[in-house]
UniProtKB/TrEMBL annotation:
The keyword Oxidoreductase applies. Gene3D superfamilies: FAD/NAD(P)-binding domain. It comes from Dissulfurirhabdus thermomarina. One of its GO terms (molecular function) is oxidoreductase activity. Signal peptide: none annotated. Residues 6-289 form the FAD/NAD(P)-binding domain. It comes from the Bacteria. InterPro entries: FAD/NAD-bd_sf (IPR036188), FAD/NAD-binding_dom (IPR023753), Ferredoxin-NADP_redctase_2 (IPR050097). Pfam families: Pyr_redox_2. Keywords: Flavoprotein, Oxidoreductase. This is FAD-dependent oxidoreductase. The keyword Lipoprotein does not apply.
Length: 312
């Protein structure tokens, strides 16, 4: 399958990502925005403290307008999440694998994924971390080779995690209320033998002094397990970019560290919005998105000049 080639790929279509798309596209570079509008925290909120927006504006409507603006300037959109990133390549770019199995090549990447609340909020959850409970399939899958496991979550991270585990574990369940992922990925789960339990969530963690022994779902179903992986939402920024060496904040390892141009320590990777830390305000996300979009487009221009291709 031939990879799609873009100058700037933006991960996330909240206010930061959309503003980055507007400014990058206006610089006449090829822009692709990845992600689902409904995944933005703004989609479920109202805004009444943003300059020049009177009254209480619905976030969903603001996102729709922003998406139309970015598209009008030439940005492309795909409602898919990234499940793996590699790079920088010898050419200085990045390879992004999408949940549906396709690949995108990018000269620059803007991370605007926001931050996620990862836990289930269940009794005894913190005590079971590392004792049968994990928040990262990529990190801990090999500990469960030949064992019985489940993945809890609704987004692409959960579905892709279950697919990864199907090649390692003996038995894999995906517990999801409503899988927010591509039909192609769901089809691959079935082919891999993953048991998908839809319309249900984890209600209780069953454990003993040794650690996790199973889970009880909210419909009363009980599963005997050796391991449970909690993978909420899209693939988190930490999992995607930390493997590339992108610097995270040293205290919580939750936020991406950037300079005044929203550039990370890895040339070609930029970040904006909530993923760069508080305050979690739309005004901050939009301002950083503007800077990140311009800086990413400038990075593309510089790379083309170095390659002898002239100014894009």
């Amino acid at each position: 399958m031939e990879a799609m080639d873009y100058d700037v790929v933006i991960l996330g279509c909240g206010p930061g990502g959309l503003q980055a798309a507007v400014h990058a596209a206006r610089r006449k570079v090829r822009v692709l925005v990845l992600g689902r509008p409904g995944a933005s925290s703004l989609a479920r909120a109202h805004v009444e403290n943003y300059l020049c927006v009177p009254g209480k504006a619905p976030g969903e409507e603001l996102l729709r307008i922003g998406r139309e603006q970015a598209a009008a300037f030439g940005a492309d959109f795909r409602e898919e999440d990234v499940v793996r990133m590699e790079g920088p390549t010898e050419a200085g770019g990045f390879r992004l694998d999408l949940e549906g199995g396709e690949t995108v090549l990018a000269t620059a990447v803007v991370v605007a994924t926001g931050v996620q609340r990862r836990g289930l909020g269940l009794k005894g959850e913190k005590d079971l971390v590392g004792r049968g409970l994990s928040y990262c399939v990529d990190c801990d899958a090999n500990f469960y080779r030949g064992r019985r496991v489940a993945v809890a979550g609704d987004g692409s991270a959960a579905a892709h995690g279950a697919l990864t585990l199907s090649r390692i574990a003996a038995e894999v369940h995906l517990v999801t209320r409503e899988p927010a992922t591509s039909p192609k990925l769901l089809e691959r789960l079935g082919e891999a033998g993953v048991r998908v339990l839809t319309g249900r969530g984890v209600a209780e963690l069953v454990s003993d002094e040794q650690g996790l022994r199973g889970i009880r779902l909210d419909d009363g179903t009980e599963l005997e397990l050796d391991g449970l992986f909690v993978e909420t939402g899209a693939k988190g920024a930490m999992e995607l970019v930390s493997v590339l060496g992108v610097e995270m904040d040293p205290e919580k390892f939750t936020y991406i560290v950037t300079n005044k141009n929203q550039a990370t320590n890895i040339p070609g990777i930029f970040a904006c919005g909530d993923i760069c830390g508080p305050p979690f305000q739309m005004a901050k996300a939009v301002g950083e998105g503007c800077v990140a979009g311009l800086a990413a487009a400038d990075h593309v221009r510089k790379r083309r000049q170095e390659a002898g291709g002239g100014d894009p």
